[in-house]
Amino acid sequence: MPKLLKRIVDGIYQLNRWIGEMMSWAILGMVVVTFAIVILRYFFNTGWVWMQEIVIYLHAFVFLLACGSTLVQDGHVRVDIFYREASPKTKRRIDLLGALFLLLPTCLLIFYQAFPFVMDSWSVLEGSKDGGGLEGVFILKTAILAFCILTFLQALAMAGRFFLGEAMTEGELNG
User: Fold this and answer.
1) Distance of alpha carbon 92 from alpha carbon 111, whole angstroms
2) What is the per-residue pLDDT across 47-65, written as a single tens digit (0 to 9) for each?
3) What percent of the chain has pLDDT over 90?
4) How far apart are CA 28 and CA 30, in angstroms?
């Protein structure tokens, strides 16, 4: 059973790492499109709504989909009142308790609340309210559910690594 758990946990870590790498490319895309918008606006006095919405979509995807990757790298924000001075063993326990009792329930609650909202959007294949905008608002809203799933899985994988006696984050390995 521990070998199966390790394979599942490693798979989740690898998935979130890969998504994090893809989102770094999305950031580059966001910069390029923003640069194009500025050039078009100030030098050619033109622009398109769909280009501005691409930046918004990419920004949302980066923040929603890279959350699990941020957990892998131990890059999330935490209240640092006790944590900074704690021993590595205490930090691991705090991370485990935070994942189990804060992160997992929060992901479930957001998923539960967002699911009908996303399904309504899919039922009408919701598009942009602005003329000339992107017709994929339903895809954008689906990223909320993907955020919940990826973050939930990463929290479970972190707990799995704790119980396997392994480092829970890459930050723990490197720090």
Assistant:
1) 26
2) 999 999 999 999 999 999 9
3) 70
4) 5
Number of domains making up the chain = 1
Answer yes or no: is 174 within a domain.
Answer: no
Taking CB atoms within 8 Å and a gap of at least 24, the contacts of 136-143 are 136/57, 140/57, 140/60, 140/61, 141/114, 141/117, 142/118, 143/60, 143/61, 143/64, 143/65
- Structural domain of residue 27, as residue ranges? 2-169
123-167 pLDDT, tens per residue?
999 999 988 899 999 999 999 999 999 999 999 999 998 888 877
In a domain, 163, yes or no: yes
Please report whether residue 8 resides in a domain. Answer: yes
Separation CA 31–CA 24 (nearest Å): 11
Overall pTM surpassing 0.70 (yes/no): yes
Let me know if residue 175 belongs to a domain. Answer: no
Gap between the Cα atoms of 54 and 88, Å rounded:
42
